[in-house]
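dumping these here so i dont lose them again. two proteins, back to back, each one seq then structure tokens. dont judge the mess
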Amino acid sequence: MKKLQISAMAALVAGAILAPLGAQAQQNGVTRTDLQRHDLSASGREAIQVRVDLAPGVAFGKHTHPGEEIIYVVEGQLEYQVGDQPPVTLKAGDVLFIPAGTVHSARNPGSVKGSELATYIVEKGKPLVTLVK
């Protein structure tokens, strides 16, 4: 019984600490859900899949990845600015390839949630996302 009480108390404390972080993520309108991560046969590389949801009107600023990003738009529409190229707006079912280290950004120009499945082929041990000023 004592262990159950301690576990319950720990869960309450963790919830109180993590709730503001969840609220902050919800406020900015970007939700990232890690789906899988696996080492590749290529030494020092790994594959990571993430679902990224952007609320209507929300943008994720300029950033890079330490490897390639392969995007599949799951729902809604998303606008991408990749390097110096003109922005491109993709709808559900469209795909995009972003070369390693390329500065890019995304935003949801629509009135409904926009979601992508992002597959990264990256250098293991490096931060997945590096923000660019």
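---- next one ----
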Amino acid sequence: MNFKIHGVDLVKETKENVKVIRECLNPASDRQKSYSDLKRKEIEYQVSDRVFLKVSPWKKVLRFGRKGKLSPRLIGPYKITERFRPVAFRLALSSELEKRHDVFHVSMLRRY
């Protein structure tokens, strides 16, 4: 027997398959979210707080003291001078970083 699926039947079968796949993905997605939420913490910074700044994006551009494994992961502390959004902050940077952009995402900051 050689069956061929035509037009409407093909669309109907595809929709059913997509529905089954989505139903299977939801529990897996919820489980992954619950695991990642355990590690996630909400940190609120205020203007005039002091924070450390993460160095990793600048590793190849600027050198802070040492080279290689011994190079610092965080620099600072720097004072927060302005808050743009819940996740964007302007810092009062030192003279060695004055040519750098002074607005940073909250993921780049660590509490002092």
